[in-house]
Specification:
Elements (H helix, E strand, L loop, with lengths): L8 H6 E6 L1 H18 L5 E7 L3 H8 L6 E9 L11 E4 L9 E9 L3 H11 L5 E9 L12 E5 L5 E2 L15 E4 L1 H4 L10
Parallel strand pairs: 2-3, 2-5, 5-6, 6-7
Antiparallel strand pairs: 1-9, 3-4, 8-9
Helix pairs in contact: 2-3
The chain binds 1-O-pyrophosphono-5-O-phosphono-alpha-D-ribofuranose.
């Protein structure tokens, strides 16, 4: 865990505490990759990653995979600059054909489940051979859709988390750890702990 004195001053100011240190993230991502590698052995995988928060997790995950794989992105956003979850907007569509393929959907966090439910419905219409889902973080207490992910990095309580891809108002994605944002940062901008 990075000692507080080694964190950038603005992170120290805005982050109340480190929830998942980078060493633990690295260990868990490697272990998830091992499970995926075993489950998809002999298959050609299409990874569909959901922009934007998934980028650090995805980059680390795929470097542990030796399977033949292709990578594509869906742009999907459920809420903007610090406001409560609302209608989903697709900002980028798939480029690769997933018909008859093994698909692994990768996202940073499973929260209410609205995003993943919409993405799964969309992908199923494209007739892949099978779809599995992988999320770094899971907030089961927040679920509004009846679904779970096949691969979960960490189940976490209902805290406002940022870092390792997760943002508040598009900030903090580059923190190398997952941290809990101080309430005064999002106070008045987002009914806590909805975002993060
Ligand atoms: C976040 C996150 C998930 C989604 C989870 O995306 O990356 O995709 O919310 O929330 P849900 O389970 O309640 O649907 P966001 O729309 O914030 O986009 P981002 O990845 O660009 O931050």
């Amino acid at each position: 865990m990075p000692s507080p004195s080694r964190l950038a001053a603005h992170w120290r100011r805005d982050v109340a505490r480190v929830l998942i240190p980078k060493t633990e993230l690295a260990r868990r991502v490697r272990s998830l990759a091992g499970k995926i590698e075993t489950d998809f052995r002999g298959r050609e995988l299409v990874i569909v990653a959901l922009l934007t928060g998934t980028v650090p997790f995805l980059a680390d995950l795929i470097r542990h995979l030796t399977l033949p794989l292709r990578l594509d992105f869906l742009g999907v956003s459920s809420y903007g600059d610090g406001t409560e979850s609302r209608t989903l907007i697709y900002t980028k569509e798939l480029r690769l054909d997933v018909r008859g393929r093994d698909v692994l959907v990768v996202d940073d966090i499973l929260d209410t489940g609205k995003t993943l439910a919409s993405v799964l419905a969309k992908l199923r219409r494209l007739k892949p051979r099978r779809i599995k889902t992988c999320v770094l973080l899971d907030k089961p207490n927040r679920r509004k859709r009846n679904l779970s992910a096949d691969y979960v990095g960490f189940k976490i309580p209902n805290l406002f988390v940022v870092g390792y891809g997760l943002d508040f108002a598009e900030q903090y994605r580059n923190l190398p750890f997952v941290g809990v944002l101080r309430p005064e940062i999002y106070a008045g901008r987002c009914p806590a702990p909805v975002c993060g």
